[in-house]
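Lab notebook, page 48
Experiment: co-folding of the full assembly
Goal: obtain a model of how the components sit together before planning crosslinking
Operator: M.T.
Materials (sequences as entered):
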Amino acid sequence: MITVNNIHKNYGSKSVLSEVSVQFPKGQVTSLIGPNGAGKSTLLMLIARLLEPSQGEILLGEQSIAGMRTSDYARQVATLRQSPDFNLRLTVEELVAFGRFPYSRGALTPDDHRAINDAIAFLSLEPLRRTYIDELSGGQRQMAFLAMTVAQQTQVLLLDEPLNNLDMKHAVQIMRALRRLCDEQGRTVILVVHDINFAANYSDHIVAMKDGRLAFSGPVAEVVTEPRLQALYELDFDIVRNARGCLCNYFNPSGELA
Amino acid sequence: MMRLPTRPAIWPPLLILLALAATFVFWSSGFDFDYVIPKRLARLAAIVTGGVCVAFSSILFQTIAGNRILTPAVMGYEAVYLLLQALLILAMGTQALVVVSQINNFFLSIAFMLAYSWAIHRWLLRDRKNNVYFLLLLGLVLSMVIGTFTQFVQLRISPGEFSILQGYSYTSFNRAQPMQLLYSGLLVAAACVWAWKTLPVLDVLSLGRDQATSLGVSYRRYVQFYLSLIALLVAVSTSLLGPTAFMGIFVANITYALAGSVRHRITLPLGCAIAIAIFLLAQLLVEHVFNYKTTVSILVNLVCGAYFLALMVRKQGRA
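Observation: model returned without errors.
Model output:
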């Protein structure tokens, strides 16, 4: 369980997060949703310790994350930001091996090799194992970076817009993989996602942000409702539920946009 | 697409390097072991030390900056070196060469450059800012400002003194004295061993600040550590050979192209081999073909520049 206690984050005099207090349940997939500039990524980066809060604290279990050593934290929480766009001349296998750095600091043990193989198999990257990542498509590359994060074998995974720039098939593949990480391995997954339909269909829990504040949070079934989404996105929503899940339709809102 | 084996072949580059070194030492030496060959061995030592400095400093620097077209030269170290030399000559005239012995000048230069690097890091990291780009921009601006100061000082000195000063602004392997070489060698060896011990960290740093932090690397601490190493290496190479300017960019990029990998286990040694080979070739040409009518800096820039351009054009064609 990750507990965020009264977090504020300011850049100079500009406040990007204020009075955010929320809990992320253990062993579930939680989606952070909200309009652009709502502070979703900032909150995720604070949990990842890539930013420091101006005020407030974040607890991992019972422990405040601020005092933990970087190397210890890397064995409990793994973060994946959007994959870098510069050309790294590394094979998929070499990239995934970086996920073992928190444990072996570079000298791979048999355990590390097992974890690397497991992560590659988990994401079905076996055929691409020796391919250089600068030769992969955007979707494959994202899978390779995800495999690195999986190989880190942490209880918590944080992902910042993992579906960015992916086609539908790759987006479904990534979301399914995250779902399986949670269901089969009991990991806690927290991701920032823009597509409300992926959030509604693949996560257990939703944390919605707006204007740097918490809008609402709760289990998907309770919070994915027309009035709540309408207030959050200022769009007219029509939620259709059937056997394959739910579809939040906002494509043709009635009336003028604010 | 060409696939390179994971274990790189270390013999071809090593053999080429040995052949070049042997040519350099023995070509039309008349096997004069009393004068010619010891002199050439000293130059060879300067070349090897300088080459290692240039390769290590520029590859480390590019990894930290996450940028392939930068070199530590833009941080202003060389400008500080030239300013120091200009000030010494302004203060004491040609007497400077006598009053400040070469070995003292060497240590003075290193101290000066390290102090400069320490000061800009201190000043920048004071308010918890740790932005490499800001550091770069500051270095670039400072190197221009310091360069202008140097020019101003140059206007105050006599033409004779100016020609001495000008000698300092070219890369040269003849300047180094045996003691100076010994100290440089020791310093560089220590720096390299230190960098080599943290090779896996370097590889992780090439993934960028966020990913490296998420993999448990204390980014701030290591960036400071590597920046100090780079300052030391640049200080040694500049006071040993003079400014090498953009050589670092060429060496690093040729290395990446040939290595087919960004693992520092491969790029650092290969980079050293390439830097040493380029210096050796340039010096061979200067000594035997051009009869000292041109300088190493000009040749290095010409050869590296041409090769670098060719590399870029070929890559463009393939992509």
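Interpretation: The mean pLDDT of chain B is 82.
Next step: discuss with group before ordering constructs.
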